[in-house]
Amino acid sequence: MIRLMAILLTLVGAAAQGETLRLAATTSFNNSGLSDVLLPAIAQDLGLEVQLLVVGTGQAIRLGQAGDVDAILVHSKAVEEAFVAAGYGAHRREIMYNDFIIIGPSADPAGVASAQTAIDAFQRIAVDQSMFISRGDDSGTHKKELSLWTAAQQNLAKFTTWYKAVGAGMGASLNSASAMDGYIMADRASWLNFGNKGTLKLLFAGDPMLFNQYAYLPVSPDRHVHVNAEAAWALENWLVSPRAKQIINGYKIGGEALFVFNARP
Amino acid sequence: MRQYMSVCLQDVVVERRGKTVLGPMTLELSDAGFTMVLGPNGAGKTTLLKVLHGVERVSSGSVSWSVPSQTAREGQAYVFQSPIMLRRSVRANLAYPLQLLGLDKADISERVTKWAARIGLSAALDFPAPRLSGGEQQKLALARALIRRPNTLFLDEPCANLDGRSVREIEEILREAVQAGTQIIMTTHDLGQARRLADRVVFVNKGQIEEQAPATAFFNAASSLGASAFLNGDIVE
Amino acid sequence: MSEIWAGIAEAFRLIWSLDEDLIDITIRSLKVSLTALFIACTLALPFGTWLAIRRFRYRRFAIAALNALMGLPPVVVGLIVYLLLSRSGPFGVMGLLFTPTAMIMAQVIIITPLIASITHQAMRELWSEYHDLLISFNTTKQQRISALIWDGRRTLMTAALAGFGRAIGEVGAIMIVGGNIDQVTRVLTTAIALETGKGDFALALGLGFILIALSLVVNLTIHTLSRTEREGRW
Asked: B73: which of A68, A103, B206, C12 lies 20 to 30 Å off by Cα?
């Protein structure tokens, strides 16, 4: 009851102001198209204009550290915890997750489609030395990919020309994979929303190792006095509310749900 | 309105790239009328004119006028051998020096119309000046110089490369200017022109003044060797 | 090839339907680049002219430096401006980051050297032509600069157009300092980058063709206004 009152108060408070909030979110969040649905709902419910900066995880963290944004929404747990530990972030709040999938040429030379686990799939690619496109930009997706190589007991230093680090966002990397007909690990949402698939196909998915947790981190007002902490708090409450749950779980592309709401109120 | 300004060079030396191009020279020009500066090519006539006008720096010596420097500068005008046209209309070219002086529009307009008629370019007032013929451009340059009613007018071989008719028209305007009280100092290669116009002659050779005399005296009985050779049409080295 | 046709078709569709987003980002593109152009010209035109007529000791060095600044990679300029305007930076308190103002600032820095350099070259040529005459007229420095700028205005206009072209097509710097925020700092070039990144090539191309058309329209308008073609000479 008290929680509900608190939420209502914040809603009213924020609605009365019609203010803005700067949120740095990752390219995968935007490419999925979910932000196009969430932002108008936020504006309607909270009277809050969310100014969305779509950047890579590394840059989002950097913007949060500098205090140039009021909150960040990223998907790289280790980096997030470091962010909070160093005092830049007030705290970390899990919101939703989606999953990563492995995409590749329909010919599938490495036989990824018949892999049993994600690690198995990665090992097959390494053994076959088929062309693989990596984000290479220190993003959440990139870090996940690296962790999988490590889990598959592969040494990146030994990778030769078949491994291409493009240093770009999800969409741009998918473009490269499509052009080069190579394997790539992408988040499902970006893939479904991607318009240039070429001969690429979804080859592997479903392993829990590939789950991708998004978290919301408001920038600490102790560190940066000027941040819009009130609005950040209002947004956070909204993101973990039943309303957000409904929107997030209900968001589909081509009949497929992309995100799973797992926030704890 | 018209006062005579006299100019005086005192031990003037002009050096360029280590070579003495002019001087040491001492000269005073104070009389009205036409002063012709004659001499062979490379004698330093143009340099002398530029020094007098103040657009050439002297290495040593002094150039002084009989009036305060501001008055002296405003009272001079210069016509170059190759006319320099502003990339504007004839009207704008004529008006420019008057605009610099800050005259009011009516005054400027009146003078521009008058001078355009004087040089026969009334019909071409809105024509772009750079597209005039050589003769027309030089007449325009002359009008532009005289429109300010200068006390002293310098001309550096103004009629080189011009046809006979333009030469005649220009000489006529110059004579009128002298009658109105302008002091004219000019160089020329045309001995005929020199004889027609000169009141006095300054003969320059190898950067020095070899002779200075009233016109009749100079043309009939030039005393220096260089001058005699020059008048004879011989090559002067 | 089919994608290029799709792009042209998309461009027409957007214009025909007077797509709201398109109008919004087009107006913003023009506002940002034209403002930057105006500011850059007020800085660069007099400076380039002044540099052409003033003689001072380190003149050659200054000219070389100016020409070198033309080669400043725009994205580096963007990064530096970001660091200056960031909350953690010296001018953070002004709160200019991620606003169109920051974008204008970055573009001014990028195009001013270009305009100044072209101006300088044109003015130097004109000055050597007018030199003797203007000195003979006893003009002040101010009067000389005015005469040169007025008579050389057509070349200066070319310089300005070069600057505008650089500004309207710029994407690296304004992406960093503007943040490509929808409804706030998104312009044609950053929108194209975004749509390309999403793989929506048709839309990206459509926006691209509109950008080209926009540039042409601005060029033609300026030329018509200055009656350059009518007079038949440059």
From this structure: B206
